[in-house]
Specification:
By secondary structure, the chain is α+β, with helices and mostly antiparallel strands. Helix content is 43%, strand content 24%. The chain has four helices and seven strands. A seven-stranded antiparallel beta sheet has the order 1-2-3-4-5-6-7.
Length: 202
């Protein structure tokens, strides 16, 4: 009996020695792992730079769109003001009567209207879905819209003149352009253009 007990004790000691746990020694990355980690870090940094560039570009376009909306309003307001100074028996109405930088909204349609005793120039515009687009016009643009010209006679005949508007980004300048899809004529949206449209209505 004593011999059996000693054998079991001896066996237990051997097993304990065999399966004992020692201190864990941390191993550093191999040379190959270091190279892979280095390349991975470079790719993540590149992504961060790219994201920062996209955010900055979006801010620039948003600022440009606000400026463009104010420019368009200014062209129309100057046209109405200049013509009203020459009118003796009536005056043009322009809506809205005020437009500020914070009036522009990235999402939604904006509407300006010039009314000369029922002869209407109606301008609507909005931001493009992408930051910059060439979907509807050959020159890159950031705002798109249209101008409609009508009076009661044209409404009765269901004839409403409509031309497209684009705020374009060109090599040396940015500008509002009109585009006539029927004749493919294009040019600057300015006072001369508005005078020509109003002349057709009156």
């Amino acid at each position: 009996m004593r011999c059996s007990g000693e054998r079991r004790k001896h066996i237990l000691v051997v097993v304990k020695a065999k399966w004992g746990f020692g201190a864990v020694v941390a191993r550093g990355p191999s040379h190959l792992q270091k190279e892979r980690l280095k390349k991975l870090a470079q790719r993540i940094d590149a992504l961060a730079r790219k994201d920062e560039g996209v955010i900055e570009r979006a801010r620039e376009i948003a600022s440009l769109r606000r400026k463009a909306a104010l420019d368009l309003y200014g062209i129309c307001a100057d046209f109405v003001r200049g013509l009203n100074e020459l009118l003796a028996r009536t005056e043009l109405e322009f809506d809205p009567d005020d437009y500020r930088p914070d009036s522009f909204q990235e999402h939604g349609t904006h509407l300006f209207q010039i009314n000369a005793r029922g002869r209407i120039l109606q301008i609507r515009f909005q931001a493009t879905e992408e930051l910059v687009s060439t979907e509807e016009f050959r020159v890159p643009y950031v705002l798109e819209g249209a101008i409609r010209c009508f009076n009661q006679r044209l409404l009765d005949q269901d004839l409403i003149e409509e031309q497209f508007l684009f705020y374009t980004i060109e090599k040396r300048r940015t500008m509002w352009r009109f585009f006539d899809a029927r004749t493919h004529r294009s040019g600057a949206f300015d006072a001369d253009y508005l005078i020509g449209l109003m002349e057709q209505l009156v």
